[in-house]
UniProtKB/TrEMBL annotation:
Keywords: Hydrolase, Protease, Serine protease
GO cellular component assignments: outer membrane-bounded periplasmic space
A Pfam family matched in the record: CtpB_N-like
Organism: Nitrosomonas aestuarii
Name of the featured protein: Carboxyl-terminal processing protease
Biased composition (Polar residues): 443-452
SUPFAM superfamilies, per database record: ClpP/crotonase, PDZ domain-like
Biological-process GO terms, alphabetical: proteolysis; signal transduction
Gene3D superfamilies documented for this protein: 2-enoyl-CoA Hydratase, Chain A, domain 1 (3.90.226.10), 2.30.42.10, 3.30.750.44
Family: Belongs to the peptidase S41A family.
Record GO terms (molecular function): endopeptidase activity; serine-type peptidase activity
Biased composition (Basic and acidic residues): 399-419, 462-471
Residue segments, region Disordered: 399-471
Length: 471
């Protein structure tokens, strides 16, 4: 029996080696630069084959080869960093649907921490938001199934589902003695990418909740409407990127381009391959997909010069950090709020055939002045701590296996110090169980009030990183 397993293992090593060699040569042929070919780790492949054989022969239940190979691929990618992953047919389809801004589920942005699902933030106007799910909540049970031991992908699959079906979520929340139980009804999550209004004549408010396929076009329409509806010349514009988890890169370039001079550098990337080295400018070729009409060409000229404030917090990640960093580096906008998430890595979706794909981290983002966003984020010009949940947030630097910031001399945000400061604060009674989080842009939004006071020259209490700018 052992000889059979040994022979099977050697055959498996040969098959795997052949496949990897063909993939390796294919990848090398596609690269612009010639790199040294590293020999395959035959000993490790032999060990892999032995484990495969032992599982097939000795595991308590029979396991399909397809499942073992899929889990092995999953393990390779998950072990790299928090954002690389394997996408099966359903996940690949959901990813494509998500960029269009509509999917079935609860409306929660989550990550994995210590084997539990942790809420980064609820998405506005969703079942989770309305029920009062909060940043920092730990999801320990989905219906009767314990989350411990699940992968993040498995947990998300359970939370998503057909609209009008219900799920019971058990949550552990800091400051609560007993777990909280929420019964939520799944819904079609239609994320409105751009929301806008006139706060008062001459002062515009634009909120971007996520960077989707049509975010640039929606922003352009919002700008035209606001400028035409204001009864007085525009004196200030507030761009709200709080709790915006990011999305499509071309959407971030489009939003930045609306406010920056033409051809200004928005962001650049650095990676190992030629394709991973990009410099994206405020130019239609970098934000239009295909040969469509440039929806930014007829914006009011004042949008390039009107004083701006960009609002950010610990939930501002990826594409929203790109926008905030570009506007800050070009001194186009004052950035106000708290340290952003620090998700400065580029994921490329690489289709594998059979409607599956891998999402692989291939590069890091840098702001126009060369600041690496990864694991540091964007530091606001005006720091504000009015949002009392911000110290509880999970940031990129807190995630297991996160990629370290690649720039020498740059310091990570003092998350430990912030956490210590949070623990020293007196505990406040939680009154948000049924009312849910404060709506951004509402009369209860303290940071928005701070921004308006800043525009009007009223003294603000938050600590300033630099002097007041007219931008």
């Amino acid at each position: 029996m052992s000889n059979i397993i040994k022979k099977a293992g050697l055959v498996f090593v040969g098959a795997i080696t052949g496949v990897m060699l063909s993939l390796n040569f294919s990848a090398i042929a596609k690269k612009d630069s010639v790199e040294a070919v590293h020999p395959l780790p035959i000993e490790e492949l032999r060990t892999f084959a032995q484990v495969f054989g032992r599982i097939k022969s000795d595991y308590v239940e029979s396991v399909e080869d397809k499942r073992l190979i899929t889990e092995a691929i999953n393990g390779m990618l998950v072990g790299l960093d928090p954002h690389s992953s394997y996408l099966d047919k359903d996940e690949f389809k959901e990813l494509q649907i998500g960029t269009h801004g509509e999917f079935g589920g609860l409306g929660i942005q989550v990550t994995m921490e210590d084997g539990l699902v942790k809420v980064i933030s609820p998405i506005e106007d969703t079942p989770a938001f309305r029920a009062g799910i909060q940043t920092g909540d730990l999801i320990v049970k989905l219906d009767d199934t314990a989350v411990k031991g699940m992968t993040l992908t498995e947990a998300i699959k359970l939370m998503r589902g057909k609209p009008k079906t219900s799920i019971t979520i058990t949550i552990v929340r800091e400051g609560e003695k007993e777990p909280l139980i929420f019964t939520l009804v799944r819904d079609i999550i239609k994320i409105q990418s751009v929301k806008s209004k006139l706060i008062e004549p001459g002062f515009a408010y634009i909120r971007i909740t996520q960077f989707q396929e049509h975010t640039g076009e929606n922003l352009a329409q919002a700008i035209k409407t606001l400028f035409s509806e204001s009864s007085t010349p525009m004196q200030g514009l507030i761009l709200d990127l709080r709790n915006d988890p990011g999305g499509l890169l071309n959407g971030a370039v489009a939003v930045s381009s609306a406010f920056l001079p033409k051809n200004a550098l928005v962001v650049y990337t650095e990676g190992r391959t030629a394709d991973a080295k990009m410099r994206l400018h405020a130019n239609p070729e970098y934000y239009l997909r295909g040969h469509g009409r440039d929806y930014l060409h007829d914006l009011p000229s004042e949008v390039k010069t009107v004083p701006m404030i960009t609002l950010v917090n610990g939930g501002s990640a990826s594409a929203s950090e790109i926008v905030a960093g570009a506007l800050q580096d070009h001194k186009r906008s004052v950035v106000m709020g708290s340290q952003t998430f620090g998700k400065g890595s580029v994921q490329t979706v690489l289709p594998l055939g059979n409607d599956t794909a891998i999402k692989l981290t291939t590069a890091l983002y840098y702001t126009p002045n060369g600041h690496s966003i990864q694991a540091t984020g964007i530091t606001p010009d005006i720091l504000d701590e009015s949002e009392n949940d911000d110290d509880q947030r999970v940031r990129e630097a807190d995630l297991n296996r996160h990629i370290a910031n690649g720039k020498k001399g740059e310091k990570k945000p003092e998350t430990e110090k912030a956490a210590q400061k949070s623990t020293n604060k007196p505990k406040k009674e939680n009154n948000k169980k049924n009312t849910g989080p404060i709506e951004f842009g509402s009369s209860e939004d303290q940071l928005l009030t701070q921004a308006m006071n800043y525009f009007k020259g009223i003294t603000t209490s938050p600590e300033k990183k630099g002097e007041k700018s007219d931008g």
